[in-house]
Design a protein that fits this description.
Layout lengths: L7 H15 L43 E4 L11 E5 L6 E2 L1 E9 L7 E9 L2 E8 L2 E9 L4 E8 L5 E8 L4 E5 L2 E5 L4 E7 L4 E5 L2 E6 L4 E10 L1 H16 L1 H17 L8 H16 L1 E2 L9 E2 L11 E2 H11 L4 H12 L11 E2 L16 H12 L2 H21 L9 E4 L4 H8 L12 E5 L2 E7 L1 H21 L9 H7 L1 E2 L4 E2 L1 E3 L5 E2 L7 H5 L5 H11 L33 H13 L3 H14 L27 H13 L4
Antiparallel strand pairs: 1-2, 2-3, 4-9, 5-6, 6-7, 7-8, 8-15, 9-14, 10-11, 11-12, 12-15, 13-14, 16-17, 18-19, 20-22, 21-22, 22-25, 23-24, 25-26
Helix pairs in contact: 2-3, 4-16, 5-6, 5-7, 5-16, 6-7, 7-8, 7-10, 8-10, 14-15, 14-16
């Protein structure tokens, strides 16, 4: 590939041959440069609205609350499909295609070929005619506007029109801008070059431009008329110098890739890393409504995931820290905007704060994420900003989730329900909670009647980083530290594994499961304990499965390959196990397991989206597509691969 040692001409030849064979990707012109063009068809997002199958993802970027798909070959549209509103409360197609493009004499320019391609941060479409091609290129310039660049080699003028606006849309003209207003308050603005001839009739518009090789249209979505009026100046600036906007987009994406890709990795593993970056960037949303800072949502493809969750956010920030540290910072700030006076960070937040869930918190991984940002930026001001809030959250666990005051904490809830307590663990239906009972700590604090090994490993890890931050900032660390107790406390020498413990009789709870991996990932386990665990970890019937390290041992009678936290692969837990093995001198084994993940997950090297979880025994994709959590941990596996 171009960013390594392959000659440019060979790369171009291979790309040309691939395009000729598949006809799936627009061939990049000779003027295109940058690493993004080494990764054509990064995702398959071909979907024409009104077709019967389900849309599984959109092209979106720069924190936008809207997206597009490429048309399906069997239901072709001469334009990108959309925009689609990505707000949880407004998810709908605002048009089949707000802008379609065709020569002004289609009868004299019969259709030849069509093709589409999704590069990281760029969507392309080509319609071939006997007299030439009309090639369309879509790039997001900012969170409100995408720039449509049209290359026209037909020698004819072009006609633009919308295709199948949503029934409620009101179409009007304002100068060289077509405005399509939705009753929700959202509006689509299509701004053409000044010499375009525009007219509105019959609930649609028609724009015509004279014959020229290049043309531009800005497609914008605004959350209300005031935002539209405020954004007009920026739209004009984009059209006044479109190449500068495209250069900024290219530089941004080149930075993402340069800051992540390694020179010593196989090409197909690079592609996985690029898919992971693209997933995180596609799930970036700018501040809106109750979300007071930019953040990364779990998945733009699933409506109920269009919000911010606490431990999800910590993972996303850790994954994004190296290539977009400012986004990583704001993603953390967004959750702490709702920190309660007692220090609690609530479970999840939305654009509508009435939807927020404050019944529980989530596992504490935030100091780990902040440390990733520190490693990437050495931003002492950010540490100083966050340190008091981090300390308050750390202390909250001991104040509200330590039922017997022994310094070992439990998952719990604020309303006394086991449902919310299971949510607080992040492992909603885990087998180890099947017999849990709630005990009351105070008016707004309840615990499960078991102390969880993963929770206390996370807390000890947070303690380590807080002490590091305190030293950097010259602060005094004045909080509990029970780190030294954990290795022996949670280790069962009879079963050679780590387990939760019951509050009353201190018996070990449950069967071998992924919660034990955290003791290896955090480095809290003693080496001899890890040695004794290896027989089970390497057992192909238990944890060394086709995709390694399921959420519960695969020979457990309650194991369910599609059972959410009762069997499938969650890549955060697989990462904890692999990284944990690396911590204890098993680097070659960790690399072998990483290869199993990269080589065996269904569609990972092809155009399929990264999913929430996977089948342990087949690698088949299970829950939500375009999942940030899995993407973040794929980046971490990529970063650590080959490291001793």
């Amino acid at each position: 590939m171009n960013h390594k040692t392959f000659p440019v001409i060979l790369s171009a030849l291979l790309f040309f041959v691939s395009g000729m064979l598949t006809l799936s990707c627009v061939r990049a012109s000779a003027g295109n440069s940058g690493q993004r063009y080494d990764y054509p068809d990064i995702f398959d997002i071909c979907y024409t609205p009104d077709t019967l199958h389900r849309c599984t993802g959109w092209f979106t970027d720069a924190g936008a609350w809207f997206g597009f798909t490429a048309p399906e070959r069997e239901a072709w549209v001469d334009g990108f499909c959309g925009p689609f509103s990505l707000d949880m409360n407004r998810r709908e197609w605002l048009a089949k295609a707000a802008v379609t493009v065709a020569p002004d004499n289609v009868a004299g320019a019969s259709r030849d070929t069509d093709s589409v391609c999704y590069y990281p941060g760029e969507l392309r479409l080509s319609s071939g005619y006997v007299k030439g091609k009309v090639e369309q290129r879509l790039n997001f310039i900012d969170s409100n506007s995408a720039l449509l660049s049209i290359s026209n080699s037909t020698g004819m003028g072009l006609i633009y029109r919308g295709d199948s606006w949503a029934p409620e849309m009101d179409i009007t003209r304002h100068g060289n801008t077509i405005v399509a207003s939705h009753p929700s308050g959202e509006l689509v603005a299509l701004t053409f070059m000044p010499d375009a001839e525009l007219k509105v009739e019959g609930g649609n518009y028609l724009a015509s431009v004279p014959a020229r090789s290049t043309d531009y249209v800005v497609i914008s979505l605004f959350d209300g008329n005031d935002a539209f009026m405020a954004g007009l100046g920026n739209i004009d600036r984009i059209l006044a110098d479109p190449e500068s906007s495209l250069s900024a987009n290219a530089a941004r994406w080149e930075g993402y890739l340069t800051n992540t890709l390694r020179d010593d990795m196989p090409d197909d593993y690079d592609r996985i890393a690029v898919k992971a970056i693209t997933t995180l960037v596609s799930n970036h949303r700018v501040a809106r409504g109750g979300l007071l800072h930019d953040g990364i949502i779990p998945s733009h493809a699933v409506g109920y995931f269009v919000g911010l969750w606490a431990w999800d956010s910590w993972r996303f920030s850790a994954g994004a820290a190296s290539f977009d540290p400012e986004l990583a910072k704001n993603n953390i700030r967004a959750m702490f905007d709702y920190q309660l006076p007692d220090g609690m960070v609530i479970d999840c937040i939305y654009t509508d704060p009435a939807e927020n869930n404050a019944r529980d918190s989530k596992p504490p991984l935030v100091c780990w994420a902040v440390d990733k940002i520190w490693e990437a930026t050495a931003d002492k001001a950010f540490l100083a900003e966050m340190y008091p809030q981090l300390m308050a959250y750390y202390k909250w666990w001991f104040e509200k989730r330590d039922h017997d005051g022994n310094g070992i904490c439990e998952y719990g809830s604020c309303d006394g329900t086991l449902e919310a307590a299971a949510w607080e663990s992040g492992m909603d239906n885990a087998i180890r909670f099947d017999d849990a009972v709630m005990v009351k700590n105070g008016d707004d604090a309840w615990s499960m009647d078991q102390e969880s090994v993963d929770l206390n490993a996370y807390i000890a890890n947070e303690c380590k980083y807080l002490k590091k931050f305190a030293e950097i900032l010259g602060e005094e660390f004045d909080a509990p530290d029970h780190t030294a107790e954990l290795a022996d406390y949670f280790y069962d020498p009879d079963r050679n594994f780590f387990f939760d413990r019951h509050l009353g009789d201190r018996k070990f709870v449950g069967d071998p499961g992924c919660e034990a991996y955290t003791m290896l990932w955090t480095g809290l386990a003693r080496p001899e304990q890890v040695d004794s665990m290896m027989k089970q970890l390497l057992d192909e019937k238990k944890f060394s499965t086709y995709i390694p390290f399921p959420t519960v041992a695969a020979d457990n009678p309650k194991y369910n390959p599609r059972g959410y936290w009762r069997g499938p692969i969650w890549l955060d837990q697989t990462y904890f196990a692999i990284s944990g093995l690396r911590n204890y001198g098993h680097a070659d084994l960790a690399d072998e397991y990483t290869r199993q993940v990269f080589d065996r997950l269904e569609g990972l090297k092809e155009g399929a989206p990264i999913h929430e979880n996977y089948d342990t025994h087949t690698g088949k994709r299970l829950k939500a597509p375009h999942f940030s959590w899995a993407a973040s941990h794929l980046i971490m596996l990529y970063n650590e691969y080959g490291r001793k």
